[in-house]
């Protein structure tokens, strides 16, 4: 499997549990943890990282990087995301926000594009909570981009849905149109230019991307294509670590990456009459305020990773629109996320983790596609799993956008009870669960 290249190379600081074959697939015996996401190859990559002794954070970095090649409709180097992270050793749950923010407009008639958050965001995640070296986690995606991968069912569905956008973007059509036709399921997707960008990120880290000659190349290309991006935008971009919103659920605490925008007193829809149902009602009120706007929450995906030590990462990825803006730097395969205000707004609910705050055992993780339909489905899943199945009897389905929700349930807790874990990938996302 290409994804584990270089896993035998040097490691960053390791704990006392390391073994002689740490960094190689099979270094971890027995329960590895697991991963759920909307793209099968990315899941396999993340599982191999867990098998090689990487942390949940390492696996999340490798998974996202792989998706920039295999599912770029919702996860690209020019995009971003938000992750909620549980680290058992430090007894912390915190949020890493690397959302792509609108670039600076320098001329009239420019198309609003976003400042990329992925390179610095994922680098920050690996630096704080990783065990394997950054370059090891990027190398798999680099080789997949250079040598190509078959188009998955997941990506094929996105290409077909976005055919009109792809056709009018020279950057996108160069990749997804071949001999006058859209590529489809099983066709080989090659992204040689993106491979060169991933090589730069693997070798140099994100420094050159935001501050060096590469940054100047990116800005010049984006502005030439009519997008909004300046050198100051890149230099000043920084991911943000912040506290999570939380609510008590019995003896556990459910942590959300994004707090609800609606205050207390939202109309009651979720049954249960407790703090969690009230919190979920506030998120539902946020969704209702979006109305029927079809631009909300598009181009997003959710994944969850947990390792055997109960460290966990749940993320929502975004390009702010399917396949982003279609503007970037074609010479390095960079496509920027959309920077339009409605498209770029923060998640309606975002990923969430349930942790015991006394012994810091992992119990539950969930992340979804981010559309109003996806956020509604995520709320219904949380309520059914953590309140009662009949607590959602008054909740109507939402049909605004694709709805995919991925979940890892370990309700008896890990590390002590890995046998209680269920890894559930939503069939609507065409993804996979790996353990």
Shape, please? globular
How many strands, which pairing sense, and closed or not: the largest β-sheet? 7 strands, antiparallel
Strand content: 15-25%
- Helical content class: 25-40%
Please list the strands of the largest sheet in the order they lie side by side.
10-3-2-14-13-1-21
Overall strand count: 21
Q: Counting H and I runs of at least 4 residues, what is the number of helices?
A: 14
How many domain regions? Answer: 1
Gyration radius, in Å: 20 Å
Mean pLDDT, all residues: 93
By secondary-structure content and strand pairing, the structural class works out as alpha+beta
Explain this structure:
With 435 residues, the protein is an alpha+beta fold. It has one domain. It is 33% helix and 21% strand. The protein is built from 14 helices and 21 strands. A 7-stranded antiparallel sheet has the order 10-3-2-14-13-1-21, covered by helices on one side. Strands 11-12-17-18-19-20 form a 6-stranded antiparallel sheet, covered by helices on one side. Strands 4-5 form a two-stranded antiparallel sheet. Helix 2 packs antiparallel against helix 3 (118-129) and helix 12 (275-288) runs antiparallel to helix 14. The longest helix is centred in the N-terminal third of the chain and has 15 residues, at 56-70.
């Amino acid at each position: 499997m290409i994804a584990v290249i270089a896993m035998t190379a040097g490691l960053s600081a390791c704990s006392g549990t390391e073994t002689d074959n740490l960094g190689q697939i099979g270094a971890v015996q027995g329960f590895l943890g697991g991963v759920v996401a909307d793209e099968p190859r990315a899941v396999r990559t993340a599982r191999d990282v867990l098998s090689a002794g990487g942390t949940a954070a390492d696996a999340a970095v490798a998974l996202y990087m792989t998706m920039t090649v295999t599912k770029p409709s919702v996860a690209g180097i020019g995009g971003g995301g938000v992750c909620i992270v549980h680290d058992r050793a430090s007894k912390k749950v915190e949020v890493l926000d690397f959302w792509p923010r609108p670039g600076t407009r320098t001329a009239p008639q420019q198309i609003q594009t976003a400042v990329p958050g992925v390179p610095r965001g994922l680098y920050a995640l690996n630096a704080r909570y990783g065990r394997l070296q950054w370059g090891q986690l990027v190398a798999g995606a680099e080789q997949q981009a250079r040598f190509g991968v078959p188009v998955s069912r997941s990506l094929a569905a996105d290409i077909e849905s976005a055919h009109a956008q792809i056709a009018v973007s020279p950057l996108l059509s160069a990749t997804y149109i071949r001999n006058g036709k859209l590529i489809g399921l099983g066709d080989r997707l090659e992204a040689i230019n993106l491979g060169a960008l991933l090589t730069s990120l693997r070798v140099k880290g994100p420094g050159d991307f935001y501050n060096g000659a590469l940054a100047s190349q990116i800005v010049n290309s984006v502005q030439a294509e009519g997008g909004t991006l300046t050198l100051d935008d890149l230099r000043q971009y920084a991911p943000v670590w912040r506290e999570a919103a939380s609510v008590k659920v019995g003896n556990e605490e459910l942590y959300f990456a994004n707090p609800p925008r609606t205050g207390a007193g939202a109309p009651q829809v979720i049954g249960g009459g407790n703090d969690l149902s009230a919190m979920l009602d506030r998120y539902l009120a946020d969704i209702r305020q979006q109305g029927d706007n079809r631009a909300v929450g598009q181009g997003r995906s959710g994944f969850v990773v947990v390792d055997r030590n109960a460290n966990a990462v749940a993320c929502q990825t975004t390009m702010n629109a399917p396949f982003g803006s279609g503007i970037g730097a074609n010479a390095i395969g960079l496509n920027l996320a959309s920077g339009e205000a409605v498209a770029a707004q923060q998640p309606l609910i975002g990923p969430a983790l349930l942790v015991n705050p006394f012994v810091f055992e992992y119990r539950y993780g969930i992340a979804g596609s981010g559309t109003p339909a996806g956020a509604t489905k995520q709320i219904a899943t949380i309520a059914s799993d953590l309140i009662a199945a009949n607590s959602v009897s008054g909740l109507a389905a939402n049909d605004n956008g694709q709805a995919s929700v991925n979940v890892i349930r370990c309700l008896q807790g890990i590390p002590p009870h890995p046998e209680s874990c269920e890894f559930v990938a939503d069939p609507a996302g065409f993804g996979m669960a790996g353990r």
